[in-house]
Design a protein that fits this description.
Elements (H helix, E strand, L loop, with lengths): L9 E3 L6 H9 L8 E5 H14 L3 E6 L6 H9 L3 E4 L2 H8 L8 E3 L6 H10 L3 E4 L2 H10 L4 E6 L6 E3 L12 H11 L3 E7 L3 E3 L3 H19 L6 E3 L13 H14 L6 E4 L3 H4 L3 E14 L8 E8 L9 H4 L7 E2 L8 E6 L8 E8 L7 E4 L20 E6 L1 H7 L10 E3 L2 H7 L3 H8 L5
Parallel strand pairs: 1-19, 1-20, 2-19, 3-4, 3-12, 4-5, 6-7, 7-9, 9-11, 11-12, 14-16
Antiparallel strand pairs: 2-13, 8-10, 13-14, 13-18, 15-18, 16-17
Helix pairs in contact: 1-13, 8-9
Organism: Polistes dominula
Protein name: ornithine decarboxylase
Enzyme class: lyase
Amino acid sequence: MKVSKSDERIHVLDHDSNVMTVIKDIAMSGLQEEPFYVLDIGDIVRKHQIWKEKMPRVDPYYAVKCNDLLIVIEVLAALGIGFDCASKNEINKVLSIGVDPSRIIFANPAKPASHIRHAAAVGVDTMTVDNESELHKIKRFFPTAKVVIRIRCDADVAQCQLGMKFGCDPTHEAPNLLQLARILNLDVIGISFHVGSGCQDPPVYHRAIHHARLLFDLASDIGFNMYLLDIGGGYPGDKGTSIDKIADTVNKALEEYFNTDAVHVIAEPGRFYVASAFTLATSIHSKRPVHGDKNFPNMITENMYYINDGVYGSFNCLLYDHQRVTPLPLKNGCGKLIPSSIWGPTCDGLDKVVENILLHEMDINDWIIFENMGAYTLPVASPFNGFPIPKVHVVSDKNIWHLLKDALPLTEDHFVIGNTPANLRLGLDIKELILMHGIAMA
């Protein structure tokens, strides 16, 4: 039996199919036991359309660290997006699909020397700094680099604060860095900031852009010709969220402080583009009813469900990204709601996905779906305790196929047409099935 690799390509859905029908078809096939993702690249395309509509002046440079799946990078490259890379490996991954080095910003303010040398070797010359030692490193290893000073301006409310690690004080430290860069004869081309990932404080962008304006003026006074403003990340991407308030603030601040075509404005969105595009399906492999005390030994006080993905896998976002997840049972429940908790598959007691939630009674082999699982999940997942990282199945509708099939680096070879759910089912756990049933491979 020859195994087709069609399940690794983008499956073009017919009009009667969508992400949930694909998930149900795979989950109910009887062949699937491992967790899996379904990625809708149409969701990424729609996010890009929203971005260009809401902030037409700001060019997005996708934060690769958020989700570095190759197909994600390829789709974004096909849309003409730039890339924010934090290491030489991320740079190499983006360059490997034909992206020009000019579409990459090396946006890690504290870089190993070997990574700076590598950036110089491959022509990625735009990079951020926030301290004196970094300027001296760049002078030594890449003196012709285009330097962007990263300032600190923290959101009052953000999912992940970053200012505690990166960003110099815009009032005192940044002017000193500009003076040092002048002494070192480095080319400072702009200012960047990052208000915090998952920002819920839109006015912070106005404050940060104002700081940037003051530094642009100071840089001009000491002889620099700066032309790049990088407004960083922070844009929410879950279903039901909106960037409207942030966009309004950014657009007004740009009009007030940078009302000129001489300044190129970019941003570093990550979760905005990918969070809602990924849906994770997990199955219950074990169940433990917790009974009451000795006075009520038959009363169940809680159901503990053990699923096949956890905090060492996709749900690392609970630890590292301060994410909250909502379990959605694939089957409609009935009867009374029971206090429940959901646990990952490893032997670690910390491997808890959801606690203190009311759910209808579920059974072993039932499936639980988690939406908004595209940001800071797969890149950090590990096969701890021998549990595999979920496979990703990629789908699109025909309109997206027509839009992207000839947009390099994508080609028609990236897509497979036909009865997509059946095609997906072909290759799911085929190696395990071969071992189990002794199927010969041609």
